[in-house]
Fold:
Amino acid sequence: MSLIIRVDPVNFKPEDLFPAAEAVKSGKTVAFPTETVYGLGADAFNGEACLKIFKIKNRQPDNPLIVHINSFEQLYSVAREVILEDKLKRVWPGPLTVILKKRPEVPVEVTAGLDTVAVRMPAHLVALKLIELSGTPIAAPSANISGRPSPTSGKTVIEELNGRADVIIDAGDTFFGVESTIVDLTKQPPTLLRPGPFTIDELTSIFGKIEVPPEATGISDFERPLAPGMKYRHYAPEKDLYLLVDNSLLPELVRRIDRKVAFLLTEENYMKVKDLARDNVTFIILGTEYNLYTVARNLFESLRKIDRLDVEFAVIQSFKEEGIGLAIMNRIRKASGRKFIRFYPF
Structure:
């Protein structure tokens, strides 16, 4: 069984994290919270330790890890061509990962053999203190079995990785609920690789022009991943998930469908169709249209809930690809394996 450490995300004692830091120092794996999702980490300079992450997650070896740092001094220990440092100081700590040229000390297990490294400084006190006490940057993807929805609570990490990770730090729920935004700073203009809590408008205000390739929306995959979430199926429940392209079809679909199905909807759309459903329909409320950050925060746990319900499959509504909505649609497309409903019957 894993060593489980339960802490308050703000009011904790540094000594609470000593066992986790010692585990990192000794080449073991630690699941820890960030402001986005939980990560499964190891010493970023220990290739053998990082290889354990891939084995625990059943992760493909060509899928790089993100290196988590707690200072700009650590940034220079993993990246050799740091550009736009003044810009990064405006956004870090925060949910932004950047791609930079790596230093040779960073092992191939972390970068999947690439000459670049994905780096971020998380805005979570527990994560920052763990990195400080460990005395090393920590390489970490999300703390789940590959392909499954990323965990946004310590409870979910324990359910999935207890007995797999050496240590699990449970600090309750994360704040954003979707993974960090990823921007490639080795390209000009900087290129969005994965949408996240930092929106296009926010990135533009910081970095100027941002290139947004079609793959960043989730409609297709990048040929070779420079960072997590760019290739392979992600975030998926075990049961089939379908994306409803046109939300105006919801009333007809809810009223006429004769199979056991879960509908994942905002509060507003639920109110429109709740009285049309029969016993074969289950509703999962994602959040509110007026604040899509509530949808982002609830998305992955809602996807996990599908597999606990007595339904054959699930249907999720679509969202405007503006602000955080771009990240939500990216995750939905990947979670559904790009299975769409465009009309009824489908």
In short: The chain is about 30% helix and 20% strand. The radius of gyration is 20 Å. The chain has two domains: 3-217, 240-341.
